Amino acid sequence: MDKEQFDELIKSTKKLNLLYVEDDKKARESTLNFLETFFLKIDTAVDGEQAFAKTELKEYDLIITDINMPKLNGIELIRKIRVVDTYIPILILSAHDDKDYFVQSIKYGVDGYILKPVELEQFYTIISKVVKKIMLEKSLAEYKNNLEQKVEEKTLELRRMCYQEYYTELPNAQKLQIDMHEGDYDYLLLLDMSNFSTINKEYGKVFSNQVLSKTARILEHHIHKRAKLYKVESDRFVILLRETSLEELHEYCKQIVAFFDNKNVKIDEVELHITFNIGISTVQENVADTLINSEYALDTSKDLGSRHYEIFDENNSSFKDEKEAIKYLKITRELILQDMIEPYFQPIVDIKTKKIKKYEVLARGVLEDSIILPFHFIKPAEKLGLMTSITKVMINKSFDFFRDKEYEFSINITERDLLDGYLCKFLKEKLEFYKIDAKRIIFEIKESITLAKDYAKITKEIDALREMGFKIAIDDFGVNDSNFSKLMGMNFDFIKVDGVFIKELKLDKKSKNILKAIVNFAKTLDIKIIAEFVEDEETYQIIKECEVDFAQGYFIAKPEPTLDRITHKQ
């Protein structure tokens, strides 16, 4: 092995993003020490399922994977990756030299097969070939990008020469940004034409462009003398205002709305009533901040219906919440990608015996020294389409945790989990792998599930879970406008009374009467009742008096990452 060639190889590999997949912790740590000689940027995955999730969220230059792993083995992982990416180099690193593995790996276009324990000479030979392939692909991609960039620059240059949208003859988005940099403006008004998509569908694109052109002429003709009008994307216009007070701004927005209330746009023989929503921001030094803030304001305006305007205010709680939600989209991706969602366990006590009978498994994000509650990452996960990933993580980690313990435990599942059709097969594999009895596991489902469009499919899936031995609990019972007849048609074992009622028991006699009614209803159906959010002794005594079966809440114990940290009141 030539030292100069070896050093050159190291220079190349240090630039690459590697995903290394290995389920055995000892083998993973040992091989990582070796790989760190070659690679600076290494992500790890402990099984094929986690590895595939990471490839969906991040681009890698190279994947090195073991074969025999739980959940999704190396060959299945490669097969799934090849469906979406036929070019990424993949190496198998395994102690097995079985002929079938070789045949399957060739079938899926594996770039190399390395036997454990890793020998430097063998690894050097294989990785040298792979790196040459990667560098060639990168060179071609760079050449293509440079070519595309030059074309884009020329196109942009041509657009900037005229600064105009071709059918409105107004300055465009590029000109807007230049003017915001160079001008001295106070406010930006983002005008969004209401129901424009309906006009487009009903009359066609040519007619719609005529509507935009005619609207542009009207706005331009009546524009404020200290204002400048722009046509930006789709059905939107922008107005920049200078030397304008807040009072004048409100008056100007009202005038725009009132004017179009009394002025129809006529194209040929068709008269259209045009309305706008307007999002307003003060012009910031950073152009992007101004545009983003106007978008936030526009969204709020739309929530109020057509013909409304809204001014962005950094101190407004709704805007703060929206910005916070955007921030947590990024954090949620990171939590899932880096496998930083962990189970916490909260005990559920049998009120008659005062003994812990079961635990609810609760998801927590663990980011450095911070614990992130589900309130912050569940909705972002739903938006990102990653909710089932969280469910799978919680199933795997809770099954692993409880397999050598005697307790029952409950896991929350969602409407999405029940509709995606993966649960029964996935759970069958997990039961076999972790050697755990399905009768010890309760799946908690929100009462609002009865309002789902695909209720019949959901019911079928719930029945299939019960046939496998799992128990079902209806969560947040009593707070939703559920379809009671549909709820009665479901087979379930527990009712978890929503915390809204439990928290009010000490102060509100009505809540206590509701709880008694729920208990009586459950007893006729031989269904056990769990009261959540039991926060103090007085509440505990009331639910005991109402003959509730189980209690859960901070009075019993807080959720903890291990059972030895839990102390509950006897």
Automatic annotation (TrEMBL):
BP term (GO), one: phosphorelay signal transduction system
Family matches, as Pfam families: EAL (PF00563), GGDEF (PF00990), Response_reg (PF00072)
Domain Response regulatory: 17-131
InterPro entries attached to this UniProt entry: CheY-like_superfamily (IPR011006), Cyclic-di-GMP_PDE-like (IPR050706), EAL_dom (IPR001633), EAL_sf (IPR035919), GGDEF_dom (IPR000160), Nucleotide_cyclase (IPR029787), Rev_trsase/Diguanyl_cyclase (IPR043128), Sig_transdc_resp-reg_receiver (IPR001789)
Taxonomy, superkingdom: Bacteria
Modified residues (4-aspartylphosphate): 66
Chain ranges of the GGDEF domain: 184-314
Coiled coil ranges: 133-164
Keywords associated with the record: Coiled coil, Phosphoprotein
Molecular function per GO: cyclic-guanylate-specific phosphodiesterase activity
Domain EAL residue range list: 325-570
Protein known as: Diguanylate cyclase
Species the sequence originates in: Sulfurimonas hongkongensis
